[in-house]
Amino acid sequence: MGRAFVNGITVGYDDRGEGAPLVLIHGHPFDRSMWAPQLTEFAGAGLRVIAPDLRGYGESTVVPGKTSLDTFARDIAALLDHLGLDQVVIGGLSMGGQIVMEFCRLFPGRVRGLLLADTFAQAETGEGRELRGRQADRLLREGMRPYADEVLAKMVAPYNIEALPEVAEHVLGMMRAAPPEGAAAALRGRAERPDYGDLLPRITVPALVVVGRDDEYTPVADAEFMHRRIPGATLVVVDGAAHLPNLERPAEFNRALHALLAAGLRAPAPG
Questions:
Q1: How many Cβ atoms from other residues are within 10 Å of residue 10's Cβ?
Q2: 2-266: what fold?
């Protein structure tokens, strides 16, 4: 566990293992503990795994208002500077995947491999912007608990809530513990995200697109859209999972990530 003061905020992060760096970015409304199975797996496999709490979440500073994807991406770059890391394999899930795409847009030379899990590349629709604004207002008004209880069965497949109660409890606990001000700020910023469709064909590093077969938030079609546009990308659809295959089916998720890392660390470093 570590703390770094970067970009005017304190960032809490895990930094485990030694070797080539793998950076994992959590989604909304979670924290870095969502990557616990991957920290254990890959830190024990000769890699250095870094998982930060995004600003507004976990142990990082809460900044009310609106947090844009480029702010999140620049926080990650500043943390990597603090850690003395230049080029990394970087991955994110859901909102974390969109932050990673923004990181690729801003800092393409720092990316050696790319994981996009249960996310999508398109800009928000007008209806979506209004919905995110209403959700942000609701979180500030009601707190996280009602929202968390409502969306659990979309984050974790209903059959896994029954079969994997410890996973469901972990996910529910992360969501309930998220600071409403931070989560609302992220929702407002995410509503204004750009369209990454034109970025995807310019990605030249090994890339993995993963999605849970039963993901309602980012269906398989969204993953297929990204897979078709990223040259040479690999698509893995994880059966028996919804929006969080890294927690619902960690063995399958880790197997796919191992293959990306083998390719990403073999590939020549970007110039």
A1: 13
A2: Rossmann fold (3.40.50)
Q: What value does the mean pLDDT of the chain take?
A: 96
Contact between residue 148 and residue 172 where contact means Cβ atoms under 8 Å apart: yes
**CA dist list (Å): 81 to 77, 87, 88, 172, 202:** 6, 10, 12, 33, 24
In the chain, the N- to C-terminal Cα span, in Å, equals: 32
pTM for this structure? 0.96
Centre a 10 Å sphere on the Cβ of residue 162 and count the other Cβ atoms it contains.
Answer: 10
CA–CA–CA angle 168, 173, 178 (5° rounding): 135
Region 123-135: what's the mean pLDDT? 91
Q: Please name which of 7, 4, 8, 53 lies closest in space to residue 28, comparing C-alpha atoms.
A: 53
According to the model, what pLDDT value does residue 271 have?
Answer: 57
Q: Give 167-218 pLDDT, tens digit per residue.
A: 999 999 999 999 999 999 999 999 999 999 999 999 999 999 999 999 999 9
